[in-house]
Amino acid sequence: VSQSRYNVLGALYYQTADYGKMAQTRMQVFLYFVRHKLGIPTQEINEAIIHNIAIRAEVDVSIVQGIFQYYSKLQPTQTSPEQLMELHRRIEQFYQLYHHTKKQDHE
Questions:
Q1: What is the per-residue pLDDT across 85-102, written as a single tens digit (0 to 9) for each?
Q2: Three-state DSSP class for 41?
Q3: pLDDT, tens digit, for every residue of 37-64?
Q4: Cα–chain-centroid distance for residue 106?
């Protein structure tokens, strides 16, 4: 499934205010990135995979752990807009650090 399809799904869930589905879609997009940009399988997430993501992305492991720990605590039927925004913030922080590191590698 392409990233653009996830964006369309996210927009549809937003219209229906299904924040749990939006959080799930946001996480699926993140996992898609991990699989396709970093080349790391995501069928099973464990500490070794989390460390591998951190190493390949050159991002502190606490950032990656924070994403997975926060997401695991969300209740799909009770996810609030604030919780969705916090998940989004954590994932965006990862992307910003990843892209900043890659940009420095090219200088």
A1: 999 999 999 999 998 877
A2: coil
A3: 999 999 999 999 999 999 999 999 999 9
A4: 24
Q: No. of H helices and E strands in the chain?
A: 5, 0
CA distance readout (Å), 21 to 6, 50, 95: 11, 23, 21
Stated as kind and residue range, the H or E segment containing 77 is none
Q: How far is CA 103 from CA 12, 20, 43, 96, 106, in A?
A: 33, 33, 29, 10, 5
**At how many degrees (to 10) do helices 61-73 and 19-37 cross?**
150
Q: Give the torsion through C-alpha atoms of 44, 47, 58, 27, to 10 deg.
A: 40
Run of H or E residues at 83: helix 81-105
What is the distance between the alpha carbons of residues 51 and 68, in angstroms, rounded to a whole number?
12
